[in-house]
Specification:
This protein has helices spanning 7-35, 37-48, 90-101, 105-112, 128-135, 159-162, 174-178, 180-184, 223-239, 282-285, 295-305, 340-345, 349-356, 361-370, 399-402, 413-424, 459-472, 539-542, 544-557; strands at 49-54, 61-62, 68-80, 120-126, 142-151, 188-193, 207-209, 216-219, 244-251, 257-263, 313-316, 319-322, 325-328, 336-339, 428-430, 435-439, 445-447, 453-455, 490-500, 505-517, 524-531. It is of the alpha+beta class. It comes from Microtetraspora malaysiensis.
């Protein structure tokens, strides 16, 4: 016989099962809405609320007249959300973006293949009109947001000086790095609530902190003089088949740098394609033995502390014994009775050593140190080296002689330029400066602090040396190629053996000319240094023409007229 099931028993079993299931649901609801509600609410908010950085506009770098050397323009970032890209259109999206953004298609394909990532930037430097065109194609998963791009209107103009910014918008080299915090400003922030598809949810709360634009930095550089200096040094480096070269132009009274040019240079709009050694500022980072341009310091010490005058006569042979070495003049000659003016004008190593022997090692060292050797100039320029000035207690017998005429010490171009600024300024050294001030968003200029001034030698000594340097550019001096018609020019050539780590010793030469004008009322000084020239190597032949070209242009640009006076006759030899 078949036995019928008990309806009551089945009903009770069903009720128990339902009660158990409902209790599970109830427990879960209690957990979600009670125990874990705040945690889940925060998680949901994090998914909905999208934080976004609002980039600040980077400040400009301008020349002394307000011409922009580095500026910021509007740009757009194009990014992709691979998860949202329609797989059927992935090939079309990839080809289009590769073409519009000038990217390798393989790179775009690789980005779109990362479907687990929701945000991959493809290009952060897109022209806004091009970005608008791309967004007009309405590809799902392709987005755009506003940003900025750094531009350098002059390309190579002051490249090694200005430096450049990286892809993250922060300075990597030069002034862009040194003043990065000031130029960069402060990024803003905003947060909005978005839906599952990435669209903004209307009527929801949002927060926004406005970005603060960076300040502008105004330099002392004159754009036109900078251009002329770069053109001149480029031509001479190429003509002489040299390794490199630098030019500096300074205002004598203020110490302001009007031009600082380097060759080879760097095109800042394409800096990543330039070798690392050509991106920097050689005028402050490259050290070299100055050679005869250093003789003015020995002359200053001899006049100031040893009773030597411009007319003191030395009987100068063409070679001299210094400890275990015989040191020579550049050219052989019979013994000559040269005045100290003649020694400097004709750049006699032997005559300079004879004058230096009237000084103690410490006195010569202290004078060299007072002119700024062995320490950075105080300009604050990035990458500046201190050079090398060995302590006088460590000098060998021959080094005591070679230091006197500029071998055995190492300097930068800026340090040597500062020496001649000091002499031209009546013996007062003004710390070189490159920044005129900073400008806020309202165009108000906050001038930079006044540079420090230091008396190095007496005004009388400085004037006597100026007269000796003017003779060096005269008919019987070594710097005749630096003469500028109508102007009185004072200056000095330098030809030094060049130490090269690649060859492990002295290989080639450093050719230099540095001077100032008008000699009787100095306004501007300029220095030209050329490293390892292959066609010619004397400072008077290789560097002096660069000085003449750059200084002639600077005089016209600054509207500095000739003084109209004539240089007094300089006595170079006894009995003249």
């Amino acid at each position: 016989m078949l036995r019928l099931g008990n309806p009551g028993r089945r009903l009770h079993a069903g009720l128990i099962a339902m009660a158990f299931v409902l209790s599970l649901f109830a427990g879960r609801l209690v957990q979600l809405q009670g125990l874990d509600s705040k945690v889940l609410q925060a998680k949901a908010e994090r998914q909905r609320v999208q934080p976004e950085t609002l980039p600040a506009r980077r400040g400009s770098i301008t020349d002394v007249n307000g011409h922009e050397l580095a500026l910021t323009k509007d740009a757009a970032e194009i990014y992709v959300d691979p998860y949202e890209v329609d797989p059927k259109k992935r090939e079309q999206v990839s080809s289009t973006l590769a073409s519009e953004l000038n990217l390798p298609k393989e790179k775009v394909d690789a980005a779109l293949a990362k479907t687990q990532q929701r945000y991959i930037p493809l290009n952060r430097d897109v022209d806004p009109l091009r970005a608008k065109k791309i967004m007009g194609m309405r590809f799902k998963g392709v987005g755009s947001k506003p940003t900025y791009r750094r531009m350098y209107p002059g390309g190579r103009l002051a490249g090694g000086l200005l430096g450049f910014v990286g892809y993250d918008g922060h300075g990597l080299e030069g002034l862009e790095r040194t003043y990065d915090k000031l130029l960069a400003g402060q990024d803003g922030q905003q947060s909005i609530e978005i839906g599952r598809g990435g669209e903004r949810i209307p009527m929801t709360r949002s927060t926004r902190k406005e970005p603060v634009a960076g300040q502008d930095v105004r330099l002392t550089i004159d754009r036109d003089i900078q251009w002329a200096a770069e053109q001149a040094i480029d031509r001479q480096v190429q003509a002489s088949k040299a390794a490199s070269g630098s030019v500096i132009v300074m205002d004598i009274k203020t110490g302001q740098i009007l031009a600082m040019a380097n060759s080879p240079g760097v095109d800042l709009n394409h800096w990543s394609t330039v070798a690392a050694e050509d991106r920097g500022n050689r005028a402050v980072s490259e050290v070299f033995e100055p050679g005869s341009t250093n003789k003015v310091i020995t002359a200053a010490a001899a006049i100031e502390h040893a009773g030597v005058t411009p007319n003191t006569v030395f009987r100068v042979p063409d070679q001299i014994q210094c400890a275990d070495r015989v040191l020579k003049d550049a050219h052989t000659h019979p013994p000559e009775k040269l005045t100290f003016t003649g020694v400097i004008a004709e750049s006699s190593n032997v005559g300079t050593i004879m004058a230096a022997r009237k000084l103690s090692n410490q006195r010569l060292y202290d004078t060299i140190r007072a002119f700024g050797f062995g320490s950075v100039s105080g300009s604050g320029l990035p990458g500046e080296e201190a050079g090398l000035l060995p302590d006088w207690r460590t000098w060998s017998g021959s080094q005591r002689c070679t230091v006197a005429y500029g071998q055995g010490v190492s300097v930068t171009a800026l340090q040597m330029a500062s020496v001649y600024q000091t002499i031209a300024n009546g013996g007062v050294r003004v710390t070189p400066s490159l920044v005129a001030g900073t400008t806020d968003g309202h165009g108000r200029l906050a001038p930079a602090p006044t540079p420090k001034q230091t008396r190095v030698i007496s005004e009388t000594t400085a004037k006597q040396i100026s007269g000796m340097l003017e003779a060096a550019v005269g008919n019987d001096g070594t710097g005749t190629e630096a003469a500028i018609p109508g102007y009185r020019v004072a200056g000095k050539t330098g030809t030094a053996m060049r130490y090269d780590q690649k060859c492990g010793g002295y290989c080639g030469y450093t050719a230099t000319f540095v001077g100032f004008t008008p000699a009787d009322a100095p306004r501007l000084m300029a220095l030209a240094v050329i490293q390892d020239p292959k066609k010619g190597h004397y400072g008077g032949a290789v560097a002096a023409p660069v000085f003449r070209e750059v200084m002639s242009f600077a005089l016209k640009t600054r509207k500095i007229p000739p003084t109209g006076t004539k240089a007094p006759k300089a006595v170079l030899r006894a009995g003249e």
